[in-house]
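If your schedule permits, I should be very grateful for your opinion on a structural question. What I wish to show you is a protein chain and, alongside it, a tokenised description of its three-dimensional fold. Would you kindly read the sequence against the tokens and tell me how you understand this chain to fold? Here, with my thanks, is the record as I have it:

===
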Amino acid sequence: MLSILRVFRKKVLVKRNFGKYLLYAFGELILVVMGILIALQINLWNTQKSNKNQERYALNRFSTDLISDIDQLTQLINATEKQLVDLDLIIQIMDDKDDISKFFKLQRSIHDINTFKPNMGTYDESISSGKLQLVLNDTLREQIFKYYREVSKCSADDAMSKMRDELFLPYINSNIYNTEQSIRFIFKTKAQLPKLDLDVLANDKDYFSILISAKGKYVQILNWQNYLQHAKNLKKKIQEELKTVDS
């Protein structure tokens, strides 16, 4: 096409037909503009393809993180529900005055505090790089924001951890673990320490306050169940969006 226009230009210049030359110049200008537009369109296609690939990559990583969160939350709920059952067993042992070894073992269910550690890597990276905006579905993007804003707080976990450090462990270490039976149970040896008297402990208001406070773990479970449902719903939405992106 260009070679034909060049030949045409030579002919009109020879004949000094400036009207036809202007027509040629206009045609050449149209070709240049068309070339620029085609180049811009190709660049736009490449950019859209790159963005779509990055969106697919981010969504797959979010899905992987959510699967990990779901597994972790499920384990936390099961483990903490067992701890609540153990608290009732402690009361039963104190009433029956039997199996002191099991009594010591169950103390861990008081001061072992489970905490949820959400997988924030993909979210933090997407926020800092601005790549979360590549998720074109506005509703899904807002759901991702909402989920990670919610799980980043974990206020009930923080409260229970504080009670463990300031209330549970100091009392249990001083009044239960620091006894002759506890040393024998843990180290399989004797120690010149006071014996633990379950009758005395059964009338200790401080110990029962600890047991009641430890029952507060059910609030953690309620929060985790809420997070779990959100994680499952979000994972489902992401899987649906991935099908749309792939199509």
In short: The longest helix spans residues 18-96. Residues 135 and 150 are 20 Å apart (CA to CA).
